[in-house]
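Quick one - first record:
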Amino acid sequence: MRSNIGTRIAAAALLAASVAGAAVAQLAHREVGQKPEAGVDSVVTIGSPLLKRYNMIVVPGVILERDVDVDLGMQGDVRISAGSPMKAETDTPKKLRVCTVAKDTYTNMMNQTGGACLTDRDRDGTFDSVSAQSIMGTTKLLKEPVPYTVTGVPEGFGENNHQAVLIYQGASAGTLRLSYREFSNDMARPAFTEDLSFPITGTYPQTVTWRDTKITLLGLGGDGLRYRVEAAAK
């Protein structure tokens, strides 16, 4: 009898886990668009995206608000940068567990890499423990809670996922510098990068064009570059 009860409890636990995982998976959806939208005046600072265009599968997840750098001793270490997208694996009113899209955030003593996970065990809006994604016994409490922002994040892998980003690298001596990064299928790393430069003057507004993108520069000041992405001609 005890054996049967134990079997039923284990089966119920497995069913609950699979249902929870399915609930997270069902929330995956495709998003197509760009940020900022055409015709919207915006401001960008050096190192930040000036324009994003995307056609990708988005899943529930979070964006970290500060770095995670944890030494696991003989089990290796975890390094996750602020801003990294992390996918939700367990999402209940009492617990949130997320894991990195990138698969080089955990490194063991043999320099083998894998994903890392963070857990908010009381859903207070901060993560309180870290672990390697697929290795038991690596969980460690964080010395300081890590805040995060709940959002949709790229699934990371799969066909027909695409994202293109223009990063603002600064403007000086009559030159606007941008970096183009293109992601395909694996959203953790760019498949193609290109450094771009455009001649500009000290008079605003002025326009720069690259491929099918026209950007009106509205001004440059201490708060960053003010600009507007123009709507495509019809």
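second record:
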Amino acid sequence: MDDIVAPRPAHLLLREETREAHEDTEASGGMRRLMDGELDVAGYEALLSAQLGLFEEWEADRAGWLADVVPQAGWSYVSRASLLRGDLAVASGARSYTSRPVEGRAPPVGASPARDAPAPAPAPAPAPAPVGASPARDAPVPAGASPAGDSIHYSATCWGELYVIEGSALGGRLIVRRLRELYPDRDHRFYAIGEEAPSAWRRFQHILDTQLHDDASRRAAVDGARRMFARFRQTLMEPAAHV
């Protein structure tokens, strides 16, 4: 009798299938210039503003899923848009900023949602300019659309998108050290989010494995992750983000 080969865990499949997209995103012009110290303060603020537009749109599109499915699965999402608004508020001198996101009382990454309510979804903001063209397989899902009109497929796609967002916190721990050298007077709460709970990534990977339990859901998650990488890549290449 032939041995039955168990399918790869979802988090490993996502890592392997999006490796190239991940590397391309890390090599984007805006991020490269940031890490090379080629951006002045205005350029850094423009980079934050560009990412704020992306997260305001994504969090508004996925608000229901973030408030319902994610905490039921055992995860608490911290609003990146709130952290970015806080960093930009400090940059503009509009207000002082503490370690708490601007909107709501979001728990730290990896907090137990069984007892901690998820961060409130930010109010919808005017949508930024549509994400630019990208390879056909990486084309973003239109705002607010369900990828196939199917709730299970839709949720799997969202998990793939969240995989990219939560995974970026790991890289953020390296980025924030560089930012503190370049811009020592800033809080850098957005990029420092991964420092609050560095071990949470393993728990998130386990949640992915339990939520993406069949081949169809894993493939939908891979597609969602690739699209999210494409959105990040386009955002980081926008001229306004790295002039």
